[in-house]
Amino acid sequence: MKVGGIFSYFTRHRTIANLLLLLMLAAGAAAIPQMRAQFFPDSAVDDINISVTWQNAGPEDIDEGIVQILEPALLTVDGVSSSSASSREGRASIRLEFAPGTDIDAATEEVQLVLDSTSNLPSDAEDPEIRRGWPHPLPSSKCPL
């Protein structure tokens, strides 16, 4: 009984199977320089973080005195797709996300203009700080002590 097919041919002629394996390995090694390898994809910073420090103020005061004043004004900046804000003791953080393709340099300037034009922040609060990108580490990198 004779069984046909490629597998039976290679089991009968092991030298040819090994030569084919070497040929495929050589072809793979020759193709490596032409491969485009990228470990981290290109990504643009599409968000801006604004933080304001107000010493000795509780989260409720921060929310009323800073976040509720700044966030609506910052939402008028062109290209803002979403925002999130957090209030904790002594600090307010507002994160603005922008639509893809938004000129972040121009958006940063516009955010600065909005912050400069806001004059009804508490007198004890420090000037707002602007940072491009999300400055906090990822939650998975936090380590309890």
Count of runs of 4 or more consecutive helical residues:
4
Strand content: 15-25%
What does the average pLDDT come to?
Answer: 84
How many extended strands? 4
Order of strands in the sheet with most strands: 2-3-1-4
What would the principal axes of the Cα set say about the shape?
rod-shaped
Largest sheet: 4 strands, antiparallel
Unreliable stretches, pLDDT < 50, 5 or more residues? 135-145
Number of domains: 2
Radius of gyration: 29 Å
CATH topology label of the largest domain: Alpha-Beta Plaits
Quick one: CATH superfamily of the largest domain?
Multidrug efflux transporter AcrB pore domain
Q: How do the SSEs run, as a string of H and E?
A: HHEHEEHE
Terminus-to-terminus distance: 71 Å
Structural class: alpha+beta
CATH class of the largest domain: Alpha Beta
Percent helix, as a range, is 25-40%
Task: Give the name of the CATH architecture of the largest domain.
Answer: 2-Layer Sandwich
Brief sketch in words of this structure:
With 145 residues, this protein is of the alpha+beta class.
Q: Can you offer a commentary on this structure?
A:
This protein has about 140 residues and is an alpha+beta fold. The protein has two domains: about 1-35, no CATH class; about 45-140, Multidrug efflux transporter AcrB pore domain (Alpha-Beta Plaits, 2-Layer Sandwich), CATH 3.30.70. It has helices at about 5-10, 15-30, 60-75, 105-115; strands at about 45-55, 80-90, 90-100, 130. It starts with 5 loop residues before the first helix and ends in a 13-residue tail after the last strand. Residues about 135-145 have low confidence and may be disordered.
